[in-house]
Automatic annotation (TrEMBL):
Example of a GO MF term: electron transfer activity
Protein family according to the UniProt entry: Belongs to the cytochrome b561 family.
GO biological process: respiratory electron transport chain
Keywords from the UniProt entry: Cell membrane, Electron transport, Heme, Iron, Membrane, Metal-binding, Transmembrane, Transmembrane helix, Transport
A matching Pfam family: Ni_hydr_CYTB
Cross-referenced InterPro entries: Cyt_b561_bac/Ni-Hgenase (IPR011577), Cytochrome_b561_oxidase (IPR052168), Di-haem_cyt_TM (IPR016174)
Localization per record: Cell membrane
Principal subcellular localisation of the protein: membrane
Transmembrane segments: 12-31, 43-65, 92-119, 139-162
Domain Cytochrome b561 bacterial/Ni-hydrogenase, chain residue ranges per copy: 9-172
Membrane-topology descriptor: Multi-pass membrane protein
Reported cofactor(s): heme b
Protein name from the UniProt record: Cytochrome B561
Amino acid sequence: MADAPAATYDKTTISLHWASAGLIALLWIGGQTGDWFSGQPKLIAWSTHVTLGFALTLVLVWRLVWRRSSGRHLPPANSGALQILAQSTHHLLYGLLLIVLALGIVNAFVRGFNLFGVASLPQLGDREWRKPITELHGLAANILLGLAFLHAAAALAHHYLLKDGVLSRMLPERASEKPSVH
């Protein structure tokens, strides 16, 4: 007998999803609190923010390549309007994340950012760009976080209200289970 279709995403897809979510949360918190400090603690806070931003960029690239090449593709959990809404939300999340990361990278280079007092990124562009790029980066990050909260709320609604197993498709502990054999 053949294996039943997989009910969960593969371990790599799940790991990349949760790594992205965790990094986004840490980066947003760091972006909101980085200026609370001064001197060396401020340098460490912003250096950590920039470094984690570059790490998230690598995770996102890996995630996109994995999704296109090797990741497990599951059938849509819903049809009709819910499917269109889910697909649109995912596309918007990826698009906003790309915008936030691009603006963050541009911001780091416009500033010639000093990382941990050890190395500096080359300063590219005009200093007058700093404020508008920083503001756009922050605005896009806030919108991304708001959409991510809606995404999480929808997953919880699927789990607790619809009880349709959508959330369990992306939970780490389920990825280790093998599909049932019929």
